[in-house]
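Fold these two proteins, one after the other.
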Amino acid sequence: MKRRLNILCVIVMLVLGYSVIESAYYMGMGIGLGAKTGWEAAKEMKSPGKLEQHDDYRELANLKFITLIPHSLGGNVHELLCDSVYNTKTGEYVPVAHASMAVSMKTQEGLLSVVLSGLLSLVHLVAVVWSVVLFVKIIVAINRSDIFNWRNVRRLRRLGVLLAIGFGSSLLTGYMELWHLREVFALQHYDLALSDTVNITTFVISFTALIVAEIFAIGLKMKEEQDLTI
Protein backbone atom coordinates (compact mmCIF):
# COMPACT_ATOMS: atom_id res chain seq x y z
CA MET A 1 0.00 0.00 0.00
CA LYS A 2 2.83 2.40 0.88
CA ARG A 3 4.54 1.64 -2.44
CA ARG A 4 1.40 2.56 -4.35
CA LEU A 5 1.09 5.76 -2.35
CA ASN A 6 4.72 6.63 -3.05
CA ILE A 7 4.18 6.15 -6.78
CA LEU A 8 1.18 8.51 -6.71
CA CYS A 9 3.17 11.03 -4.68
CA VAL A 10 6.04 10.91 -7.17
CA ILE A 11 3.62 11.55 -10.05
CA VAL A 12 2.16 14.58 -8.30
CA MET A 13 5.68 15.73 -7.45
CA LEU A 14 6.68 15.56 -11.12
CA VAL A 15 3.62 17.61 -12.11
CA LEU A 16 4.38 20.27 -9.49
CA GLY A 17 8.05 20.25 -10.47
CA TYR A 18 7.13 20.78 -14.11
CA SER A 19 4.93 23.70 -13.09
CA VAL A 20 7.85 25.28 -11.22
CA ILE A 21 10.24 24.80 -14.14
CA GLU A 22 7.70 26.15 -16.62
CA SER A 23 6.97 29.23 -14.49
CA ALA A 24 10.67 29.92 -13.93
CA TYR A 25 11.43 29.44 -17.64
CA TYR A 26 8.79 31.85 -18.92
CA MET A 27 9.56 34.38 -16.20
CA GLY A 28 13.29 34.22 -16.97
CA MET A 29 12.68 34.37 -20.72
CA GLY A 30 10.48 37.46 -20.32
CA ILE A 31 13.02 39.22 -18.12
CA GLY A 32 15.90 38.28 -20.41
CA LEU A 33 14.16 39.36 -23.61
CA GLY A 34 13.03 42.61 -22.01
CA ALA A 35 16.57 43.37 -20.85
CA LYS A 36 18.04 42.54 -24.26
CA THR A 37 15.47 44.67 -26.06
CA GLY A 38 16.12 47.64 -23.78
CA TRP A 39 19.88 47.26 -24.09
CA GLU A 40 19.75 47.01 -27.87
CA ALA A 41 17.42 50.00 -28.09
CA ALA A 42 19.80 52.11 -25.96
CA LYS A 43 22.77 51.34 -28.20
CA GLU A 44 23.42 53.14 -31.44
CA MET A 45 22.63 50.74 -34.23
CA LYS A 46 24.38 51.97 -37.35
CA SER A 47 24.65 48.78 -39.37
CA PRO A 48 21.54 47.05 -40.89
CA GLY A 49 22.57 43.78 -39.26
CA LYS A 50 22.31 45.24 -35.79
CA LEU A 51 18.96 46.83 -36.63
CA GLU A 52 17.60 43.51 -37.86
CA GLN A 53 18.87 41.74 -34.73
CA HIS A 54 17.17 44.36 -32.55
CA ASP A 55 13.90 43.81 -34.42
CA ASP A 56 14.15 40.07 -33.74
CA TYR A 57 14.59 40.68 -30.01
CA ARG A 58 11.65 43.10 -30.02
CA GLU A 59 9.37 40.61 -31.77
CA LEU A 60 10.26 37.90 -29.26
CA ALA A 61 9.75 40.27 -26.32
CA ASN A 62 6.26 41.12 -27.64
CA LEU A 63 5.29 37.46 -28.11
CA LYS A 64 1.81 36.62 -26.78
CA PHE A 65 0.03 33.26 -26.52
CA ILE A 66 -3.76 33.36 -26.88
CA THR A 67 -6.69 30.98 -27.21
CA LEU A 68 -9.11 31.53 -30.09
CA ILE A 69 -12.87 30.91 -29.96
CA PRO A 70 -14.75 30.95 -33.32
CA HIS A 71 -17.73 33.29 -33.47
CA SER A 72 -20.03 30.63 -34.93
CA LEU A 73 -19.67 27.73 -32.49
CA GLY A 74 -23.33 26.82 -32.97
CA GLY A 75 -23.48 27.60 -36.69
CA ASN A 76 -22.96 25.43 -39.73
CA VAL A 77 -19.72 23.73 -40.66
CA HIS A 78 -18.66 26.40 -43.16
CA GLU A 79 -19.05 29.15 -40.56
CA LEU A 80 -17.17 27.14 -37.97
CA LEU A 81 -14.27 26.11 -40.25
CA CYS A 82 -13.62 29.66 -41.36
CA ASP A 83 -9.91 29.36 -42.18
CA SER A 84 -7.73 27.06 -44.23
CA VAL A 85 -4.23 25.57 -44.17
CA TYR A 86 -2.13 23.98 -46.87
CA ASN A 87 -1.88 20.18 -46.66
CA THR A 88 1.54 19.20 -48.02
CA LYS A 89 0.46 15.54 -48.34
CA THR A 90 -2.32 16.23 -50.83
CA GLY A 91 -1.28 19.65 -52.14
CA GLU A 92 -4.68 21.10 -51.23
CA TYR A 93 -6.04 23.65 -48.80
CA VAL A 94 -8.27 22.16 -46.11
CA PRO A 95 -10.78 24.05 -43.92
CA VAL A 96 -9.78 24.53 -40.28
CA ALA A 97 -10.66 26.49 -37.17
CA HIS A 98 -7.68 27.63 -35.10
CA ALA A 99 -7.75 26.97 -31.37
CA SER A 100 -4.65 28.90 -30.28
CA MET A 101 -2.10 31.30 -31.67
CA ALA A 102 1.26 32.89 -30.90
CA VAL A 103 1.41 36.52 -32.06
CA SER A 104 4.06 39.23 -31.73
CA MET A 105 2.15 42.39 -30.92
CA LYS A 106 3.23 45.51 -29.06
CA THR A 107 0.67 46.36 -26.39
CA GLN A 108 0.23 49.69 -24.63
CA GLU A 109 1.05 48.82 -21.04
CA GLY A 110 1.58 51.47 -18.40
CA LEU A 111 4.23 51.36 -15.71
CA LEU A 112 1.69 50.21 -13.12
CA SER A 113 0.62 47.27 -15.31
CA VAL A 114 4.21 46.21 -15.94
CA VAL A 115 5.08 46.34 -12.24
CA LEU A 116 1.88 44.53 -11.23
CA SER A 117 2.43 41.82 -13.85
CA GLY A 118 5.99 41.28 -12.65
CA LEU A 119 4.87 41.06 -9.01
CA LEU A 120 2.13 38.57 -9.89
CA SER A 121 4.61 36.42 -11.80
CA LEU A 122 6.95 36.47 -8.81
CA VAL A 123 4.11 35.58 -6.43
CA HIS A 124 3.12 32.69 -8.71
CA LEU A 125 6.67 31.33 -8.80
CA VAL A 126 7.16 31.62 -5.02
CA ALA A 127 3.78 29.99 -4.32
CA VAL A 128 4.51 27.02 -6.58
CA VAL A 129 8.04 26.51 -5.19
CA TRP A 130 6.73 26.67 -1.61
CA SER A 131 4.01 24.19 -2.54
CA VAL A 132 6.62 21.73 -3.79
CA VAL A 133 8.58 22.08 -0.52
CA LEU A 134 5.44 21.40 1.56
CA PHE A 135 4.52 18.43 -0.60
CA VAL A 136 8.00 16.95 -0.14
CA LYS A 137 7.63 17.32 3.64
CA ILE A 138 4.27 15.51 3.49
CA ILE A 139 5.82 12.66 1.47
CA VAL A 140 8.67 12.33 3.99
CA ALA A 141 6.16 12.22 6.87
CA ILE A 142 4.12 9.54 5.09
CA ASN A 143 7.20 7.38 4.57
CA ARG A 144 7.96 7.68 8.28
CA SER A 145 4.39 6.56 9.06
CA ASP A 146 3.82 9.95 10.69
CA ILE A 147 0.59 10.72 8.85
CA PHE A 148 -2.40 11.61 11.03
CA ASN A 149 -1.24 14.61 13.02
CA TRP A 150 -1.93 18.33 13.19
CA ARG A 151 1.40 19.13 11.54
CA ASN A 152 0.30 17.46 8.31
CA VAL A 153 -3.11 19.15 8.57
CA ARG A 154 -1.38 22.54 8.64
CA ARG A 155 0.86 21.52 5.74
CA LEU A 156 -2.11 20.45 3.64
CA ARG A 157 -3.96 23.66 4.42
CA ARG A 158 -0.94 25.75 3.47
CA LEU A 159 -0.47 23.67 0.33
CA GLY A 160 -4.08 24.30 -0.71
CA VAL A 161 -3.83 28.03 -0.02
CA LEU A 162 -0.52 28.37 -1.86
CA LEU A 163 -1.81 26.52 -4.93
CA ALA A 164 -4.90 28.75 -4.93
CA ILE A 165 -2.67 31.84 -4.72
CA GLY A 166 -0.54 30.51 -7.57
CA PHE A 167 -3.61 29.94 -9.71
CA GLY A 168 -5.06 33.36 -8.85
CA SER A 169 -1.85 35.21 -9.70
CA SER A 170 -1.55 33.30 -12.99
CA LEU A 171 -5.20 34.06 -13.79
CA LEU A 172 -4.82 37.79 -13.09
CA THR A 173 -1.65 37.96 -15.19
CA GLY A 174 -3.42 36.22 -18.06
CA TYR A 175 -6.43 38.55 -17.87
CA MET A 176 -4.20 41.62 -17.84
CA GLU A 177 -2.30 40.41 -20.89
CA LEU A 178 -5.55 39.53 -22.66
CA TRP A 179 -7.09 42.92 -21.87
CA HIS A 180 -4.09 44.83 -23.24
CA LEU A 181 -3.96 42.60 -26.33
CA ARG A 182 -7.66 43.12 -27.11
CA GLU A 183 -7.02 46.87 -27.27
CA VAL A 184 -4.62 46.54 -30.22
CA PHE A 185 -5.42 43.19 -31.85
CA ALA A 186 -8.57 41.52 -33.23
CA LEU A 187 -9.40 38.74 -35.69
CA GLN A 188 -12.31 38.61 -38.11
CA HIS A 189 -13.85 35.26 -37.20
CA TYR A 190 -12.58 34.75 -33.66
CA ASP A 191 -12.86 36.00 -30.11
CA LEU A 192 -9.69 36.20 -28.04
CA ALA A 193 -9.67 34.18 -24.80
CA LEU A 194 -7.24 33.35 -22.02
CA SER A 195 -4.11 31.44 -22.91
CA ASP A 196 -3.87 27.71 -22.24
CA THR A 197 -1.03 28.47 -19.82
CA VAL A 198 -3.71 29.40 -17.23
CA ASN A 199 -4.54 25.88 -16.08
CA ILE A 200 -7.60 25.28 -13.89
CA THR A 201 -6.11 21.96 -12.74
CA THR A 202 -4.04 23.85 -10.14
CA PHE A 203 -7.25 25.32 -8.73
CA VAL A 204 -8.84 21.86 -8.47
CA ILE A 205 -5.74 20.42 -6.75
CA SER A 206 -5.73 23.29 -4.25
CA PHE A 207 -9.30 22.58 -3.14
CA THR A 208 -8.57 18.86 -3.06
CA ALA A 209 -5.71 19.53 -0.63
CA LEU A 210 -7.99 21.69 1.52
CA ILE A 211 -10.67 18.98 1.56
CA VAL A 212 -8.14 16.30 2.57
CA ALA A 213 -6.84 18.64 5.30
CA GLU A 214 -10.33 19.07 6.74
CA ILE A 215 -10.93 15.29 6.60
CA PHE A 216 -7.70 14.79 8.56
CA ALA A 217 -8.76 17.49 11.04
CA ILE A 218 -12.19 15.90 11.61
CA GLY A 219 -10.59 12.48 12.13
CA LEU A 220 -8.06 13.88 14.61
CA LYS A 221 -10.78 15.73 16.57
CA MET A 222 -12.86 12.55 16.76
CA LYS A 223 -9.80 10.60 17.97
CA GLU A 224 -9.05 13.23 20.62
CA GLU A 225 -12.67 13.16 21.85
CA GLN A 226 -12.62 9.36 22.05
CA ASP A 227 -9.34 9.46 24.02
CA LEU A 228 -10.90 11.88 26.50
CA THR A 229 -13.95 9.66 27.06
CA ILE A 230 -11.86 6.58 27.82
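Now the second one:
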Amino acid sequence: MTDKMIEIAKDFSRFPAGRFYTDGPYSGQKFLEELLLPMLQETTSQGTIKIDLDRTRGYGSSFLEEAFGGMVRKTRPVSLEEALHKIKFISEEDDTLVPEIHEYMTDAFNDQHNTG
Protein backbone atom coordinates (compact mmCIF):
# COMPACT_ATOMS: atom_id res chain seq x y z
CA MET A 1 0.00 0.00 0.00
CA THR A 2 1.36 3.39 -0.99
CA ASP A 3 0.24 6.43 0.96
CA LYS A 4 1.06 9.96 -0.10
CA MET A 5 0.62 13.32 1.62
CA ILE A 6 -0.23 16.81 0.43
CA GLU A 7 0.11 19.69 2.86
CA ILE A 8 -1.75 22.41 0.99
CA ALA A 9 -0.08 25.30 2.84
CA LYS A 10 3.40 23.88 2.22
CA ASP A 11 3.04 22.05 -1.10
CA PHE A 12 0.64 24.43 -2.86
CA SER A 13 -0.12 27.77 -1.19
CA ARG A 14 -1.17 29.37 2.07
CA PHE A 15 -3.62 31.40 -0.04
CA PRO A 16 -5.71 28.93 -2.09
CA ALA A 17 -8.50 30.80 -3.83
CA GLY A 18 -10.71 30.78 -6.88
CA ARG A 19 -12.13 28.09 -9.10
CA PHE A 20 -10.29 28.45 -12.43
CA TYR A 21 -6.78 29.36 -13.57
CA THR A 22 -8.17 32.75 -14.61
CA ASP A 23 -9.20 33.42 -10.99
CA GLY A 24 -5.63 33.60 -9.74
CA PRO A 25 -2.37 31.74 -9.27
CA TYR A 26 -3.61 29.26 -6.64
CA SER A 27 -6.99 28.15 -7.95
CA GLY A 28 -8.83 24.91 -7.36
CA GLN A 29 -8.31 23.99 -11.01
CA LYS A 30 -4.54 24.40 -10.67
CA PHE A 31 -4.48 22.34 -7.47
CA LEU A 32 -6.57 19.62 -9.12
CA GLU A 33 -4.75 19.41 -12.44
CA GLU A 34 -1.16 20.06 -11.36
CA LEU A 35 -1.01 18.40 -7.93
CA LEU A 36 -3.93 16.15 -7.02
CA LEU A 37 -4.62 14.30 -10.29
CA PRO A 38 -0.94 13.50 -10.94
CA MET A 39 -0.61 12.19 -7.39
CA LEU A 40 -3.75 10.08 -7.80
CA GLN A 41 -2.23 8.53 -10.92
CA GLU A 42 0.94 7.65 -8.99
CA THR A 43 -0.97 6.09 -6.08
CA THR A 44 -1.62 2.37 -6.13
CA SER A 45 -5.18 1.07 -6.08
CA GLN A 46 -4.88 0.33 -2.36
CA GLY A 47 -3.04 3.54 -1.49
CA THR A 48 -4.52 6.74 -0.16
CA ILE A 49 -3.64 10.40 -0.29
CA LYS A 50 -3.76 12.34 2.95
CA ILE A 51 -4.52 16.01 2.47
CA ASP A 52 -3.64 18.37 5.30
CA LEU A 53 -5.95 21.37 5.05
CA ASP A 54 -4.46 23.32 7.98
CA ARG A 55 -2.19 26.40 8.06
CA THR A 56 -3.77 28.21 5.11
CA ARG A 57 -5.55 31.57 5.26
CA GLY A 58 -8.87 29.85 4.58
CA TYR A 59 -10.75 28.33 1.66
CA GLY A 60 -13.44 29.62 -0.60
CA SER A 61 -16.19 27.29 -1.68
CA SER A 62 -15.17 27.74 -5.33
CA PHE A 63 -11.67 26.41 -4.61
CA LEU A 64 -12.96 23.42 -2.62
CA GLU A 65 -15.68 22.52 -5.11
CA GLU A 66 -13.37 22.69 -8.13
CA ALA A 67 -10.53 20.81 -6.43
CA PHE A 68 -12.53 17.99 -4.87
CA GLY A 69 -15.82 17.97 -6.76
CA GLY A 70 -13.65 18.33 -9.85
CA MET A 71 -11.63 15.30 -8.77
CA VAL A 72 -14.81 13.23 -8.75
CA ARG A 73 -15.84 14.56 -12.16
CA LYS A 74 -12.40 13.86 -13.68
CA THR A 75 -11.78 10.42 -12.16
CA ARG A 76 -15.38 9.17 -12.50
CA PRO A 77 -15.25 6.69 -9.61
CA VAL A 78 -17.49 3.62 -9.72
CA SER A 79 -18.89 4.44 -6.29
CA LEU A 80 -18.94 7.39 -3.94
CA GLU A 81 -17.26 5.21 -1.32
CA GLU A 82 -14.36 4.65 -3.73
CA ALA A 83 -13.87 8.41 -4.10
CA LEU A 84 -14.14 9.07 -0.37
CA HIS A 85 -11.80 6.17 0.47
CA LYS A 86 -9.03 7.35 -1.86
CA ILE A 87 -8.46 10.64 -0.04
CA LYS A 88 -8.25 11.22 3.70
CA PHE A 89 -8.62 14.83 4.82
CA ILE A 90 -6.91 16.26 7.88
CA SER A 91 -8.15 19.46 9.50
CA GLU A 92 -7.54 20.23 13.13
CA GLU A 93 -8.15 23.96 12.70
CA ASP A 94 -11.63 23.91 11.13
CA ASP A 95 -14.03 21.07 11.82
CA THR A 96 -16.43 22.22 9.08
CA LEU A 97 -13.99 21.72 6.17
CA VAL A 98 -14.08 17.94 5.81
CA PRO A 99 -17.89 17.65 5.84
CA GLU A 100 -18.07 20.54 3.33
CA ILE A 101 -15.60 18.80 1.01
CA HIS A 102 -17.46 15.49 1.32
CA GLU A 103 -20.64 17.33 0.32
CA TYR A 104 -18.99 18.73 -2.82
CA MET A 105 -17.71 15.26 -3.70
CA THR A 106 -21.13 13.71 -3.08
CA ASP A 107 -22.90 16.34 -5.18
CA ALA A 108 -20.44 15.87 -8.06
CA PHE A 109 -20.89 12.09 -7.92
CA ASN A 110 -24.67 12.33 -7.80
CA ASP A 111 -24.73 14.85 -10.67
CA GLN A 112 -22.75 12.42 -12.82
CA HIS A 113 -24.91 9.42 -12.02
CA ASN A 114 -28.30 11.12 -12.16
CA THR A 115 -27.96 12.53 -15.66
CA GLY A 116 -28.75 10.72 -18.82
